[in-house]
Write the structure tokens for this entry.
Amino acid sequence: MTEILFYHLTESTLENALPGLVERSLERNWKVVVQTGSEERRDSLDNHLWTWSDASFLAHATDLEANPEEQPVILTTGEGNPNGATVRFLVDGAVPANAEAYDRLVLMFDGHDQSQLEQAREQWRRLKEEGHSLTYWQQNAEGRWEKKA
């Protein structure tokens, strides 16, 4: 069964939190797909992941580039899984089309954006009603993740 995690951003932005979570997935030899809510966000994350740290970068591609199946991380606006990822991050209210297609789904939402909070609550209700096991993580004052439910 798919592990579904909700990550409630309260102390940092998506741009600050996402790279570390993706890095941990890659350390476990998991391929990743990140689904954004818009092309603008996809393109912004594309640029950000190359420069997010002075010490490293995250090798990745967008769904517009050739040979996506060879990439460890794909950024997309669509529902496809072009690199055969086992982990899918959903941001900006992106909705999982098929939760069962992945080992892990990670829904990240901005706690300062009312529409994202409402979308996350609706996704939680829907996925719970479908019988999925869900966990909820929230950032503490230091920006670390704490399991709340």
Remarks:
- The chain is about 30% helix and 25% strand.
